[in-house]
Amino acid sequence: MKIWIDGDASPREVKELVFRAATRLQLETTVVANSGMWVPTGNRFVKLQIVPGGPDVADRYIVAQSNRGDLAITSDVPLMSDLIPQGVFVIDFHGYLCTQETIGERRAARDLNDQLREAGLLTGGPAPYGVKDKQRFAQALDQLLTRELRRLATNPPVSPPEITTDDSPGG
C-alpha cells in the first residue's frame, strides 16, 4: 500500500498527520504538487513529486501511478471519481472515506455549488480547516490504515508461482 497526497490543496495539518503515520507504519508516501513544498527531509518513506503546472497534471499523475489498494488523500471530486473505480481508497481532507456509493452524491453537490457560484448565490470559499476536521481526518486515516494493513498481514497478495527449470534428464 502506498499513500498519495494531492499536495497543492492539502492542508498542512493533513500532510503532517500522514507523514507521521507513514513513518510509523513504514509506508511509501508521495506528495504530488505543481510546486515545491515542505516535506520532511531524511525521511525515506516520504517524497515530493513535482509535476509541471497546468490543469489536472497532478491528478493525472496520481491516477497513472496509483494501484489497487493504495490510499489517496484529496478533496478533488473529479480525481476521486477517477481513483475509486481503480480500487484506490480515498479519504478527503475532512476525514470522509469516499466510495463508489458516495461519489455520485459528491459530484452532485459539487455541480450544484458550481451553479450557485456562477449565479452569484454562493460567495466566499470553504470554511477554515478546524480542529474537528483534523480529528475526523486522523481517525479516518488510522481506521483505514489499521484495517487494511491487518487485512494484508493475514491475506498477503498472492504472487505468481516461481518458474523453475528442470535441467535433469527427461525434465
Automatic annotation (TrEMBL):
Superkingdom per UniProt: Bacteria
InterPro entries linked to this entry: UPF0178
Pfam families: DUF188
Region (Disordered): 152-171
HAMAP family: UPF0178
Family named by the database record: Belongs to the UPF0178 family.
Name of the protein: UPF0178 protein Plim_1646
Naturally occurring in which organism (per UniProt): Planctopirus limnophila (strain ATCC 43296 / DSM 3776 / IFAM 1008 / Mu 290)
